[in-house]
User: Fold this.
Amino acid sequence: MNKNSKKIDFLIELFIDSIKYATSKTNLSIKLNALLERTFTYNILGELGKYSGKKSLFSEVLFSRQKYYNSDPKILMKNANMLVMSFIYKNYTITQTLYLDNFKINYFSEVVTKNKRKQKGGQGYSVMVEDTPIAGKPVIRSYYDCCRPVFSGGKADSGYYLDVGGNHLVVQPQYRAY
Assistant:
């Protein structure tokens, strides 16, 4: 690890710690003042708001985003002057890009995107008529489109359904053929 990469690592650590442990917007502004270039600008886009401006308003916007920094970011150094940090916050991915100039932050960009939910469980549900009911309730299982349940009966195109509308003299559910 060379001397420059140690300085950049230290700058990143100071930047994250400044935000993470700031007690107020003024406190954050004081902490960031030493890290930001005099001509610093920022641009924030995405699901959680749109902001852009100069150094004087940056601490106000960033202080409200302090909660993002509770998780450890993934940090990727694109080149000597560009650093990308990614955070996961609730259902969002926050990607922050820092542009560096002489070991100070010259430009800050943030893009927020909503994560797509992964579906859990089956895509459909079916009453499993061949299984013995449990405590008088029919057995219901999930299935995927690729593996739909097959019900066999006496005829080629027959199946069964749960007869919920009929009168039942017994506690067991009644199945009817169609």
About this structure: The mean pLDDT is 78. Residues 119-178 form one domain.
